[in-house]
Amino acid sequence: MNHDNSKGCFSWTGNIADVSHARLYRGTIHVSDGLIVQIEHLGEPQPGPVMVPGLIDAHLHVESTLLTPSSLAKALLPCGTLATLSDPHEIANVMGMEGLAYMLDDSEACPLAYHFGAPSCVPATAFESSGACFGPADIGALLDKPRIRYLSEMMNFPGVVAADPRVLAIIEQARRRGKPIDGHSPGLGGEALRKYVAEGISTDHECTSIEEAREKAALGMHILIREGSSARNASTLLPLLRECPLQCMLCSDDLHPGDIEARGHIDHILRKAVAAGLDPMDALRAATVNPVRHYGLPGGLLRIGDPADMVEMDGLSTFEALRVWSAGRLVAEGGRCLWEGAPPRSVNRFDARPIEAAALRIPARPGRARVIEAIDGQLLTGSAFEAPLISRGCAIADPERDILQIAVLSRYAADAVPALGFVRGFGLREGAIASSVAHDSHNIVALGADAESIARAINMVIAERGALVTVGAGRETVLPLPVAGLMSCLDWRKVVRLQRELDQHAGELGAKVHSPHMLLSFMALPVIPALKISDRGLFDVNTFRPVGLWE
């Protein structure tokens, strides 16, 4: 191979995956000034590496990786990922337009293409405190920006089904401009689903059963097969690739960097698909051609005239990326990112003040209390009633029964009072964990075995103006998140190390879930059933209304 990395000019000979036409052949790709200018067909494929188009994550929240866009690119490029469809509603809920400007600016020079959406739900609901509010006019202004390619997930599915005028006005902004509309409709079916789809919503990444995915696909929706850190649905949904390969895409949604280091990214889902007996070309189509066509992305499919966004894989079963090119420039090789980038800057909003343990007291009442039932590997929760443990006139955590106290405190007010409740499924026997990542408004969420530990964890988050914290067994572990209380300024591998220390510490305290802080962050998300808690109290997502703690 002749290669001039400074000018993006070279020729490469080997096996070429023409994913658009589902064929594999031997050929030579000629690249000049970053574009594919010629492809020579040389015959049947031979043993050896395969060139494939750059992989695309069809739905990703950058902020949930705890990394800035530029830092995340350094982790993803060696996996063969060259583009994402990224919904920036996390930082938008915290900092509004200033937050979106930060994401666009930080990602501007990345060799990984971040295609952002206009966040449709800022705030996600009216039942929590957030740092911004986007109306139809704001969404229209965002959709007019060249790098804002679609309307991000419409999480307020009850509002769509009920024909809420404000929600429909936001959707109309995208329809008027002919831009795709992403969906979010966990468990929705029947007539309600048909109403949702009729508004032009064309994707869903929340399917947790093959039956749900089939019903949505039958209505024309594109199904995004998700394999993240908390939600892992790929094994269940991969058969859909065989049934309707033109309607599937692959995504991670919310992914921690430790999982990127351990297993990869979209390449990991490709390996799972082939191991399950699926056609590699169908799997590759879901990671390349389908998102390019659905979202109207520029090129990147190994065609003449396309940017040379391509990945040399060791084969179509292991999908190990040997070398990665972005616009003809070599950006990763042998698992190592060659792009340096610039150090990220910090922006933030954090107004909360420290609290006392007394603020976490729950006066006892007769009867049973509602308990959120967390499920490891799922964003869905259950809902139950349990008689709480009573001590000195207060309902308290009962670690022996795996019933912990949970609290959410607004980060947007200095005089906020925490909302309190109970949760089961984490397994802590002592101590507490806390986070300023609390979807989607990102208030402070904490849970623990006693009020003193919870208050300490919350106050450590406040002192850092955003952090993940584990407290207990005589020590404290912290990962500072100075960028909007959501993202770190550290190198991504340093973030992995600190996150691992947090999880190990939580494990020593009894935590029995894969990623305790990420699972905790979803306990405050009042758009995924069944029972959640915001800074204003418990919320029944199935009825879409606040509910009290007591039966």
SSE inventory with pairings:
Blueprint: E1 2-4, E2 9-18, E3 23-32, E4 35-43, E5 50-53, E6 55-60, H1 69-76, E7 81-86, H2 89-107, E8 113-118, H3 136-143, E9 148-154, H4 157-161, H5 165-177, E10 181-183, H6 190-198, E11 203-204, H7 210-218, E12 222-226, H8 234-237, H9 239-243, E13 248-251, H10 257-263, H11 266-275, H12 280-287, H13 289-295, E14 310-313, E15 321-326, E16 329-333, E17 336-337, E18 369-374, E19 381-386, E20 389-391, E21 394-396, E22 403-409, E23 419-424, E24 432-435, E25 444-448, H14 451-464, E26 467-472, E27 475-480, H15 492-508, H16 516-521, E28 531-534, E29 537-540, E30 545-546
Parallel strand pairs: 2-5, 6-7, 7-8, 8-9, 9-10, 11-12, 12-13, 18-23
Antiparallel strand pairs: 1-2, 2-3, 3-4, 5-14, 14-15, 15-16, 16-17, 18-19, 20-21, 22-23, 22-25, 24-25, 24-26, 26-27, 28-29, 29-30
Helix pairs in contact: 3-5, 11-12
